[in-house]
Amino acid sequence: MNGRTRSFTEEELHCHSFDLSIFPLYLARRVAPRVRIIISERPLQDPALLGFYASADGAQQKKVAFLRADESSEAGVVTDSDDFYYAVHATFAAHTDDASTYLGFTRHGSPPYAPLFALTMLYPKFGRGIFKAGELLPTPWVALTCGYTMRTG
To answer: What is the pLDDT of residues 6-19, one digit of tens each?
Structure first.
């Protein structure tokens, strides 16, 4: 799902959320070409991804992932390929405890470009998305809010 050089139609963006377009751009501009995926339950310093889990009683849990540059190790994964999405899903799923189910992930880091006015218009129009477990394309998820506003003056 290399969207770095691809533009998307309004229909595709409505179907998959604005993250269909912005997530590959985020990877291209903010993340090394080859990374190791490191999961943590505590966001210590600007994690790149946010994973969602549901427990048996319906409570939601979250874990974060850091994407560390790893050019010399075979443990790393290339971010410009479908393998990256599969590796993220596999890594988050591997950190599921017995009482929870991995649901999917979304971008957690700061947006890939300025001015933010574009995000204030496009996220409300197309929504935020979650890459559901095992999927390569995001699905709109109303539980995620954009949180970007423009200040005037």
So the answer is: 788 999 998 999 88
Residue 41 has a CB neighbour count (10 Å cut-off) of: 9
Phi, psi of 7 (to 5 degrees): -100, 155
- Residue 63: half-sphere exposure toward Cβ, Cα within 13 Å: 23
What is the C-alpha separation between 135 and 21, in angstroms, rounded? 15
* Spatial distance between the Cα atoms of 23 and 70, rounded to a whole number of angstroms: 20
Contact 48, 29 (CB under 8 A): no
Q: Is 14 exposed, middle or buried (0-12, 13-18, 19+ CB in 10 A)?
A: middle
Query: 123 vs 43, 78, 85, 114, 148, CA distance in Å?
Result: 24, 27, 22, 14, 8
Task: Please state the pTM of the whole predicted model.
Answer: 0.85
Nearest to 89 by CA among 3, 1, 13: 1
Q: How confident is the model at residue 108 (pLDDT cuts 50, 70, 90)?
A: confident
CA 7 to chain centre: 18
Q: Any alpha helices (H) in 95-141, and if so which ranges? A: 117-126
* Backbone phi and psi for residue 91, each to the nearest 5 degrees, phi listed first: -70, -45
Averaged over 54-62, what is the pLDDT? 88
